[in-house]
Amino acid sequence: MDLQTRKIQFIQEVLRLKNEKIIEKLEKILHQEKKKGMEEEFSQMTMEEFNALIDQAEDDSLNNRLFNAGEILKDIDTWK
To answer: Same structural domain for residues 38 and 3?
Structure first.
């Protein structure tokens, strides 16, 4: 069974739940696991990778490869 099918079946099971305590426990587990995943993702970066990202950001700034948040929001408004 592929991951997409498993997720759909899981969601269907959750939708059938009537016990709020079980839902609270599932929510808690989901939040804990997402937090762990984020921590692992950030902790896997080496100092060299971190410094390379900073160097790239500084180079982007010096070479005007940045976007103004206001301009981006105006562009998004045109998508509607």
So the answer is: yes
Q: Over the stretch 26-47, which tens digit does the pLDDT of each residue have?
A: 999 999 999 888 877 777 778 8
pLDDT tens digits for the chain (80 residues)?
A: 899 999 999 999 999 999 999 999 999 999 999 988 887 777 777 889 889 999 999 999 999 999 888 888 888 888 86
Confirm if 14 and 23 have CB atoms less than 8 A apart: yes
Q: How far is CA 51 from its chain centroid?
A: 22
Structural domain range at position 63:
46-80
Q: How far is CA 46 from CA 41, 43, 72, 80, in A?
A: 11, 8, 31, 41
| Same domain membership, residue 75 and residue 57 | yes
Are 53 and 42 in contact by the 8 Å Cβ rule? The answer is: no
> The tokens of 7 are what?
């997720």
